[in-house]
């Protein structure tokens, strides 16, 4: 039983030092002596009770010195060990957006204010949503390992006040025609046609090979995707299977797709006659003019150049920038607007679940909404 400097009994484990400060000691569940300090008897008694409560319920941490960077490496090596390389690369890209602001901090010093500030500096709502999902998983595992008491990432807001939520861009029928006209004599034309007419992902289009194009049956067999992966300071192209069983699918060709791919075959045969293909990629449908695989940055760069050129030629009507994924979203939205069965759309898009299809793509064009409302009541 400890005593104060005046000889008053303070309770088990509590004592008063010569400088007047009160201290309390106890052995925690890890077998280590834990010491806490306070200025008053009331404060030290409460602190001791709180610490013992957390220890009894296993709420206290094992190691207070682990940083977020250190735990991320452990999380990747253990929790995500069996993930595909492309998935790991995505995690790394997302985490790198937070690394400078949060990576050096100890897990136990992270709080909502600090983390929210880091998230506020991300450019888009989509980036914030992706990074939140990542951080929630990372910190959930840290909780399971008794490194932290609570997951503060759950409280982070991904929508900044005063900013509208990012919306997936949907190209209008007029924009699609303008896009086709502007690229009709370039190698971007067949890419746009395939993306807008089939809803295939960019990696699936760039990874499409001629043996998967059945002209006689009018079918495109989606069996793989082209990935660009880091490799000891450089990077390499690899074919990967779709992420899920549903990703492997057959897509019927429209007349436009069939004719466009016939033209692409003629062009590519001429390229193959002049340039040797990169080893392992001899049968690609889409290549550079020197018969090499195309990278995602080639497509994004071409889109940026194209949009700038269209806006220069038509300054009065601004053509908004779009990403390759917007083409897939445009295809899905148009399918819904034309009354396609959601289950059919799910199969065409290669979604693993119906919920994914409904969550991501059930946005009907405004004009379609007006037409449907006109069938019910008189429009103003």
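^ Assign residues to that structure.
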């Amino acid at each position: 039983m400890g005593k104060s400097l005046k000889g008053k009994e303070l309770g088990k484990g509590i004592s008063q030092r010569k400088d007047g400060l009160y201290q309390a000691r106890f052995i925690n569940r890890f077998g280590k002596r834990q010491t806490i300090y306070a200025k008053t008897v009331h404060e030290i008694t409460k602190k001791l009770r709180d610490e013992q409560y957390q220890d009894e319920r296993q709420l206290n941490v094992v190691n207070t010195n682990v940083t977020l960077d250190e735990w991320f490496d452990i999380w990747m090596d253990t929790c995500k060990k069996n993930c595909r390389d492309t998935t790991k690369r995505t995690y790394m890209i997302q985490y790198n957006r937070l690394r400078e602001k949060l990576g050096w901090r100890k897990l136990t010093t992270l709080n909502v204010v600090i983390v929210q500030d880091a998230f506020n500096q991300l450019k888009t709502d989509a980036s914030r949503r992706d990074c939140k999902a990542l951080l929630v998983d990372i910190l959930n595992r840290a909780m399971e390992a008794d490194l932290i008491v609570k997951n503060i990432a759950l409280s982070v807001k991904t929508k900044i006040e005063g900013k509208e939520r990012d919306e997936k861009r949907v190209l209008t029928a007029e924009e699609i025609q303008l896009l086709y006209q502007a690229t009709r004599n370039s190698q971007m034309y067949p890419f746009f046609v395939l993306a807008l007419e089939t809803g295939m992902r960019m990696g699936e289009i760039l990874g499409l090979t001629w043996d998967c194009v059945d002209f006689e049956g009018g079918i495109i067999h989606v069996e793989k995707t082209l990935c660009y992966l880091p490799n000891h300071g450089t990077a390499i192209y690899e074919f990967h299977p779709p992420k899920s069983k549903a990703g492997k699918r057959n897509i019927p060709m429209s007349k436009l797709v069939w004719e466009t791919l016939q033209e692409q075959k003629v062009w590519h045969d001429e390229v193959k006659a002049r340039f040797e293909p990169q080893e392992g990629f001899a049968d690609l449908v889409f290549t550079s003019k020197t018969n090499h695989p195309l990278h995602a940055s080639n497509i994004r760069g071409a889109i940026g150049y194209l949009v700038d050129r269209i806006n220069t030629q038509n300054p009065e009507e601004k053509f908004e920038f779009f990403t390759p994924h917007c083409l897939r979203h445009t295809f899905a939205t148009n399918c819904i607007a034309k009354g396609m069965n959601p289950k059919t759309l799910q199969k065409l898009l290669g979604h693993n679940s119906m919920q994914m299809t409904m969550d991501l793509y059930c946005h009907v064009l405004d004009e379609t909404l007006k037409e449907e409302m006109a069938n019910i009541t008189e429009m103003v």
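The beta strands are 2-3, 9-11, 14-16, 22-27, 33-38, 213-214, 219-222, 225-231, 234-240, 249-252.
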